[in-house]
Protein backbone atom coordinates (compact mmCIF):
# COMPACT_ATOMS: atom_id res chain seq x y z
CA UNK A 1 0.00 0.00 0.00
CA UNK A 2 1.42 3.41 -0.91
CA UNK A 3 2.48 5.63 1.97
CA UNK A 4 -0.29 8.13 1.18
CA UNK A 5 -2.95 5.43 1.31
CA UNK A 6 -1.55 4.10 4.61
CA UNK A 7 -1.76 7.60 6.06
CA UNK A 8 -5.37 7.90 4.96
CA UNK A 9 -6.22 4.54 6.57
CA UNK A 10 -4.50 5.56 9.80
CA UNK A 11 -6.28 8.90 9.99
CA UNK A 12 -9.58 7.21 9.17
CA UNK A 13 -9.02 4.65 11.97
CA UNK A 14 -8.28 7.41 14.46
CA UNK A 15 -11.36 9.34 13.35
CA UNK A 16 -13.57 6.27 13.68
CA UNK A 17 -12.15 5.54 17.13
CA UNK A 18 -12.70 9.08 18.29
CA UNK A 19 -16.24 9.02 16.95
CA UNK A 20 -16.93 5.82 18.85
CA UNK A 21 -19.10 6.72 21.89
CA UNK A 22 -17.39 4.05 24.02
CA UNK A 23 -14.00 5.65 23.30
CA UNK A 24 -15.34 9.04 24.33
CA UNK A 25 -16.91 7.62 27.49
CA UNK A 26 -13.71 5.76 28.37
CA UNK A 27 -11.59 8.85 27.88
CA UNK A 28 -13.99 10.91 29.99
CA UNK A 29 -13.86 8.32 32.75
CA UNK A 30 -10.07 8.30 32.74
CA UNK A 31 -9.98 12.08 32.98
CA UNK A 32 -12.53 12.05 35.79
CA UNK A 33 -10.56 9.42 37.72
CA UNK A 34 -7.34 11.40 37.30
CA UNK A 35 -9.07 14.58 38.48
CA UNK A 36 -10.62 12.77 41.45
CA UNK A 37 -7.24 11.32 42.47
CA UNK A 38 -5.56 14.74 42.33
CA UNK A 39 -8.36 16.34 44.38
CA UNK A 40 -8.24 13.44 46.83
CA UNK A 41 -4.49 13.81 47.32
CA UNK A 42 -4.85 17.54 47.85
CA UNK A 43 -7.62 17.03 50.40
CA UNK A 44 -5.57 14.40 52.20
CA UNK A 45 -2.70 16.87 52.51
CA UNK A 46 -5.09 19.49 53.92
CA UNK A 47 -6.20 16.95 56.54
CA UNK A 48 -2.55 16.18 57.31
CA UNK A 49 -1.88 19.90 57.62
CA UNK A 50 -4.65 20.26 60.20
CA UNK A 51 -3.33 17.23 62.09
CA UNK A 52 0.25 18.55 62.04
CA UNK A 53 -0.80 22.02 63.21
CA UNK A 54 -2.76 20.43 66.04
CA UNK A 55 0.23 18.30 67.01
CA UNK A 56 2.58 21.31 67.03
CA UNK A 57 0.10 23.29 69.14
CA UNK A 58 -0.18 20.36 71.56
CA UNK A 59 3.61 20.09 71.87
CA UNK A 60 3.90 23.83 72.50
CA UNK A 61 1.27 23.56 75.23
CA UNK A 62 3.08 20.63 76.84
CA UNK A 63 6.41 22.48 76.89
CA UNK A 64 4.83 25.51 78.55
CA UNK A 65 2.86 23.54 81.13
CA UNK A 66 3.96 23.29 84.78
CA UNK A 67 6.28 20.41 85.63
CA UNK A 68 4.69 17.20 86.86
CA UNK A 69 6.29 14.62 89.17
CA UNK A 70 8.06 11.62 87.71
CA UNK A 71 5.28 9.32 88.93
CA UNK A 72 2.78 11.04 86.60
CA UNK A 73 4.97 10.37 83.55
CA UNK A 74 5.49 6.77 84.67
CA UNK A 75 1.75 6.21 84.94
CA UNK A 76 1.15 7.78 81.54
CA UNK A 77 3.87 5.68 79.89
CA UNK A 78 2.55 2.49 81.53
CA UNK A 79 -0.94 3.16 80.15
CA UNK A 80 0.36 3.75 76.63
CA UNK A 81 -0.04 7.53 76.76
CA UNK A 82 2.10 9.99 74.82
CA UNK A 83 4.78 11.32 77.18
CA UNK A 84 6.82 13.19 74.57
CA UNK A 85 7.85 16.76 75.50
CA UNK A 86 5.98 16.82 78.84
CA UNK A 87 7.75 18.78 81.56
CA UNK A 88 8.79 16.54 84.44
CA UNK A 89 10.88 16.78 87.60
CA UNK A 90 12.99 13.99 89.11
CA UNK A 91 15.34 13.79 92.10
CA UNK A 92 18.27 11.47 92.70
CA UNK A 93 22.03 11.04 92.50
CA UNK A 94 23.95 11.13 89.21
CA UNK A 95 26.18 8.15 88.44
CA UNK A 96 28.76 10.25 86.64
CA UNK A 97 31.10 7.33 86.00
CA UNK A 98 28.43 5.68 83.83
CA UNK A 99 27.60 8.52 81.45
CA UNK A 100 27.02 7.71 77.78
CA UNK A 101 27.87 10.04 74.89
CA UNK A 102 25.51 10.69 71.97
CA UNK A 103 27.03 12.32 68.87
CA UNK A 104 25.48 15.77 68.35
CA UNK A 105 26.06 19.39 67.38
CA UNK A 106 25.25 22.67 69.08
CA UNK A 107 25.18 25.95 67.16
CA UNK A 108 27.10 24.18 64.42
CA UNK A 109 29.87 22.89 66.71
CA UNK A 110 30.49 19.13 66.96
CA UNK A 111 30.31 17.35 70.26
CA UNK A 112 28.13 15.09 72.36
CA UNK A 113 25.01 14.98 74.47
CA UNK A 114 25.85 13.53 77.87
CA UNK A 115 23.39 10.86 79.05
CA UNK A 116 23.88 10.13 82.74
CA UNK A 117 21.94 7.63 84.89
CA UNK A 118 20.12 9.30 87.78
CA UNK A 119 19.70 6.90 90.69
CA UNK A 120 16.34 7.52 92.34
CA UNK A 121 15.64 7.16 96.05
CA UNK A 122 13.79 3.88 95.47
CA UNK A 123 16.84 2.29 93.81
CA UNK A 124 15.67 2.62 90.23
CA UNK A 125 17.44 4.56 87.48
CA UNK A 126 16.54 7.17 84.90
CA UNK A 127 18.82 8.26 82.07
CA UNK A 128 19.05 12.05 81.83
CA UNK A 129 20.33 13.93 78.79
CA UNK A 130 22.19 16.58 80.75
CA UNK A 131 23.10 18.54 77.63
CA UNK A 132 25.87 19.28 75.16
CA UNK A 133 29.63 19.24 75.57
CA UNK A 134 32.13 20.03 72.77
CA UNK A 135 34.33 17.26 71.40
CA UNK A 136 37.34 18.40 73.43
CA UNK A 137 35.30 18.06 76.64
CA UNK A 138 33.96 14.58 75.93
CA UNK A 139 35.89 13.02 78.79
CA UNK A 140 34.45 13.89 82.19
CA UNK A 141 37.80 14.80 83.79
CA UNK A 142 37.92 17.84 81.49
CA UNK A 143 34.71 19.24 82.99
CA UNK A 144 34.88 18.15 86.60
CA UNK A 145 32.84 21.06 88.03
CA UNK A 146 29.83 19.96 85.96
CA UNK A 147 29.90 16.42 87.35
CA UNK A 148 27.31 17.11 90.02
CA UNK A 149 27.57 15.16 93.30
CA UNK A 150 25.01 14.65 96.03
CA UNK A 151 21.25 14.76 95.64
CA UNK A 152 20.14 16.65 92.54
CA UNK A 153 16.74 17.68 91.18
CA UNK A 154 16.43 17.90 87.41
CA UNK A 155 13.60 19.43 85.42
CA UNK A 156 13.24 18.73 81.72
CA UNK A 157 11.23 17.15 78.95
CA UNK A 158 10.21 13.51 78.97
CA UNK A 159 11.35 11.63 75.84
CA UNK A 160 10.17 8.19 74.80
CA UNK A 161 12.75 5.51 74.03
CA UNK A 162 13.33 4.43 70.45
CA UNK A 163 12.24 0.90 69.63
CA UNK A 164 14.11 0.57 66.33
CA UNK A 165 17.29 1.95 64.81
CA UNK A 166 16.53 4.79 62.37
CA UNK A 167 17.09 3.93 58.71
CA UNK A 168 20.66 4.38 57.57
CA UNK A 169 22.00 4.93 61.09
CA UNK A 170 25.32 3.15 61.86
CA UNK A 171 25.82 0.87 64.81
CA UNK A 172 26.70 2.50 68.11
CA UNK A 173 30.42 2.33 68.94
CA UNK A 174 30.45 1.00 72.49
CA UNK A 175 34.24 0.74 72.59
CA UNK A 176 34.59 4.50 72.15
CA UNK A 177 31.37 5.29 74.03
CA UNK A 178 29.86 7.00 70.99
CA UNK A 179 26.15 6.55 70.33
CA UNK A 180 24.72 7.43 66.92
CA UNK A 181 21.18 6.67 67.99
CA UNK A 182 19.61 6.58 71.44
CA UNK A 183 19.33 2.87 72.14
CA UNK A 184 18.31 2.89 75.80
CA UNK A 185 18.60 -0.87 76.21
CA UNK A 186 22.21 -0.83 74.99
CA UNK A 187 23.02 2.18 77.16
CA UNK A 188 21.73 0.27 80.17
CA UNK A 189 23.59 -2.92 79.30
CA UNK A 190 26.85 -1.11 78.52
CA UNK A 191 27.05 0.40 82.02
CA UNK A 192 25.95 -2.74 83.85
CA UNK A 193 22.66 -1.51 85.29
CA UNK A 194 19.81 -3.98 85.93
CA UNK A 195 17.43 -3.55 83.01
CA UNK A 196 14.31 -4.15 85.09
CA UNK A 197 15.20 -1.19 87.33
CA UNK A 198 15.66 1.40 84.57
CA UNK A 199 12.69 3.56 83.58
CA UNK A 200 11.73 3.10 79.91
CA UNK A 201 12.18 6.74 78.87
CA UNK A 202 14.64 9.65 79.09
CA UNK A 203 14.59 13.19 80.41
CA UNK A 204 16.16 16.05 78.44
CA UNK A 205 17.40 18.48 81.11
CA UNK A 206 16.32 22.12 80.81
CA UNK A 207 18.59 25.18 80.49
CA UNK A 208 19.46 25.37 84.19
CA UNK A 209 23.18 26.30 84.10
CA UNK A 210 25.80 23.80 85.24
CA UNK A 211 29.07 24.82 86.92
CA UNK A 212 31.48 26.36 84.38
CA UNK A 213 28.72 26.03 81.76
CA UNK A 214 29.04 22.34 80.90
CA UNK A 215 27.03 20.41 79.96
CA UNK A 216 24.80 22.95 78.18
CA UNK A 217 21.19 22.01 78.93
CA UNK A 218 18.02 22.71 77.01
CA UNK A 219 19.21 21.06 73.81
CA UNK A 220 15.94 19.40 72.79
CA UNK A 221 15.21 19.97 69.11
CA UNK A 222 11.64 19.59 67.94
CA UNK A 223 11.98 18.98 64.22
CA UNK A 224 8.58 18.23 62.73
CA UNK A 225 8.55 19.36 59.09
CA UNK A 226 5.23 20.86 58.05
CA UNK A 227 5.15 20.96 54.24
CA UNK A 228 1.57 19.76 53.85
CA UNK A 229 0.26 23.12 52.62
CA UNK A 230 2.84 23.13 49.84
CA UNK A 231 1.89 19.56 48.88
CA UNK A 232 -1.83 20.41 48.92
CA UNK A 233 -1.30 23.41 46.66
CA UNK A 234 0.72 21.21 44.28
CA UNK A 235 -2.00 18.54 43.98
CA UNK A 236 -4.80 21.07 43.64
CA UNK A 237 -2.72 22.96 41.08
CA UNK A 238 -2.29 19.82 39.00
CA UNK A 239 -6.05 19.26 39.14
CA UNK A 240 -6.67 22.80 37.89
CA UNK A 241 -4.09 22.31 35.13
CA UNK A 242 -5.81 19.11 34.03
CA UNK A 243 -9.15 20.91 33.80
CA UNK A 244 -7.52 23.72 31.83
CA UNK A 245 -5.94 21.29 29.34
CA UNK A 246 -9.24 19.48 28.81
CA UNK A 247 -11.10 22.78 28.37
CA UNK A 248 -8.57 24.06 25.81
CA UNK A 249 -8.70 20.77 23.93
CA UNK A 250 -12.51 20.87 23.84
CA UNK A 251 -12.50 24.50 22.65
CA UNK A 252 -10.07 23.82 19.83
CA UNK A 253 -12.05 20.77 18.74
CA UNK A 254 -15.31 22.68 18.53
CA UNK A 255 -13.82 25.94 17.24
CA UNK A 256 -11.19 24.83 14.71
CA UNK A 257 -11.25 28.19 12.93
CA UNK A 258 -10.66 30.24 16.07
CA UNK A 259 -7.30 32.04 16.07
CA UNK A 260 -4.71 30.48 18.41
CA UNK A 261 -3.19 32.61 21.14
Rounded to the nearest angstrom, the radius of gyration is 31 Å
Work out the helix count. 5
Spatial strand sequence of the major β-sheet = 2-4-5-7-6
**Poorly predicted ranges (pLDDT <50, ≥5 residues)?**
none
Query: What average pLDDT do the residues reach?
Result: 90
How does the overall form come out from the CA principal axes?
elongated
Strand content: 15-25%
Would you list the SSEs in sequence order as H and E?
HHEHEEEEEHEH
Largest sheet: 5 strands, mixed, barrel
**Helix share bin:** 25-40%
Structural class call reads: alpha+beta
Describe this structure in words.
- With 261 residues, the chain is of the alpha+beta class.
- The chain is built from five helices and seven strands, in the order ααβαβββββαβα.
- It is elongated and about 90 Å long.
Amino acid sequence: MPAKDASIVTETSVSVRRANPFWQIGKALLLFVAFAILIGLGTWQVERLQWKEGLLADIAARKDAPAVPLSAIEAMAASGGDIEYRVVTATGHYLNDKERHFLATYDGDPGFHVYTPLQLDDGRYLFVNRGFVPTEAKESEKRKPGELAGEQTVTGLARAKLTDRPDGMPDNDLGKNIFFWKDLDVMVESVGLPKDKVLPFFIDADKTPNPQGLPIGGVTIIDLPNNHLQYAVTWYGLAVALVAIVAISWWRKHHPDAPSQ
